[in-house]
Input
Amino acid sequence: MSMQKQLSIRDGACRPITALGYHPSRREVITGCADGVIKWWDIESGKLSIKAAKHSGMVTSFLYWEEAKLLLSASNDGTVLAWTTGATIYDKIEMGRPVFSMAINLRRHQLVCGFKSRIVVYPLDENRTSGHIIRMSESSTDRRHKDIVSCIVCHDAQIYTGGYDRRFIVFDTSSYPKENGLTAVQCNSSAHEAGITALLLVKESENTRLLTGSFDNAVCIWSQDGQLIQKLSFSGVITGLCYASCVDLVWIACRSPFATLLEPKSGEIASDFIDTFQKIETGPRLERLLYLAENNSVVGTAGHNHVIVWKWKKARSTTVLQNRQSVDCLAYTMKKPILLFSGHSDGSVTKWERMNSSNYIYSKESFKICEHVQKAKSQSHSLKPKKNTNAGEKSPGAKLRRSKSSDGTMVQDKQNEPSSFTRFFGNSSLKQKSVFVEELDLLALSSENGRVYLWGFDDSLSSIVKLMPNQSSVCPETRKKFHFLLDQASESQSKDSSGEEDNPDAATNRVSGFSCKKVLLGHFQSVSALAVVGKGSPYNTVFLISGGWDRRLCVWDLKKGVLQDTFSNADLENWHEFKEVACDGAILDLAYSPKRNEFAHSSSDGLIYLRQFSPVGREMKLINVMRGHESDVTAVIWHHSRSQWISGSEDSTIRIWSENGMQCENILFTNGAVGCLAFDHFNGCILAGVLNVLRVYDLDSCLQVQSRHGHTDTIRAVLHIPERNQYITGSSDKTIQMWNTYSKSPP
Output
């Protein structure tokens, strides 16, 4: 749901464009030029429909009068023309001096015109009883401006003006015709360091703000009563401002090929998180901007003769997070503050947190595994390697020497590790799967080097913060000693007070660093599947099931941080090379059903195996084998609300299975290989990453109800965050994208 370029018009036969407007009745964009020519352009096709040369000087401003269905054009030739819907002149008003800006005060039924060193207010007369559409004899004038009044905005009974004299003035208007119609209630004579070029009103549900742009390369944000709130600096002169209410963003033109996007709620620049201009580097400079509320579009002029239209696309992502490497997996925390984790192909983990006052802006913190794994290595756990697990192939893990640690578990001998971390943490160390364990505040990440990394928050600092007294009761001397911790605790608590009420320890546990706590060693090849057995299971601990290319299944006790057991074929009494092999192909995905205490693992052999879960490897009884896919089964999930297994494959199908795995109940054809699956926790729809497209399927009708385009490479991971009504996707194109959820129409 972002603004995307819809149309570009290049008018090669015109003087420079000096004014921009829109005619709602004709659905046409209007441009005025330096030679007085006015052109009407169809907003859908971009074709020129009408050309008129009725002004003898530069066109300076356009204004549409909705009540009378008239378009007003102003010029420095001293005239204002009123145009009918048929593009004929309804009225010509000689103003006696150049007109530089116009606005209509709907509350007072007035036309406000900006001249050099003055503004004049005229009562409107749509029936032309006085001879014109305005009653010129009843005008009110104010001469507080000392130079050209370049911009005017009206809101309720107030009139806001900005001029080349650097002045920003707030006027109140009178409803009594015999009294002076203008009263200056606030006059800032030095609002900017240079002339004001643009003025914008931003009206939200809770706040009303005004923005001014200037030749001094700055944008100032003002309260409704004319008080300065914030000042932002830019690299060029501010030539245009508009507020796109459909995405709650202010567009700022500052002599560059792209607009800068400002979020008025937070006062922060959000351009890096919106894909509208992320790929634009060169082109004509944007000059003027205009938002069209009726069709959620932004129109802009660029250079001397370009007109560009951007349109709101519901199917596009709302936010884009850029990364330096491919995004291979995603996980998130349900506790507040909500954190998003992404694993990348370079062996790094990134923690993302959205600004509390923003809908777009995220802070990020990246962690390299090689920088954290040394600390965790003394706590790494594995079983002693056994004989070859794959026929005809020696397991790489079998060559590793192991020794016992102080607690009796097996750890890898340091003398056999490579001298450089590059061998283990280079490009071959892809994070293929991740899952966040809410009960333990742990992030489990799998890797191609056969390891599972457990990441957690800094226990020591969070424990100190918990023991610290409330800031209000801390004496000055103590505050001075512990000011660093106090500041961090205060910042964490202020990020989301409502979340702290629900869980007082949620924010405190995450007050500081994030590090690799343990490295789980039990696989000999890439670990490509993870599943948590926790909440809702019949056990009093939390287990992690892992599977990979060595075809083995490992069960880990996460509370103790040890390997509980590995799958063992009960039919093979003595040692056999296939005794710990759970399937014929590599294990690609895992899913656990708390309702049935069963788990499914999909395989590259085209099958899904359904097993009874048990912490004892010999008791992982095979319940059923789901057959039907014709290629690698890349994803499998348990649909909690429908009690069904869902699988996706490279054969371009999604299959819906009964809860006992005995029957394939439906087949969805996806027109592309399925890379990942998830489901919408509210409406039950299936989310599928199909090549580079996110597809949404309604299981009631078995039809695709949405397709979301925006990625340029394969989607590797997909999530639904119900707390924010968002779908999240991670892709090989090095981006994470957020999408608005699909809403079913009421029956």
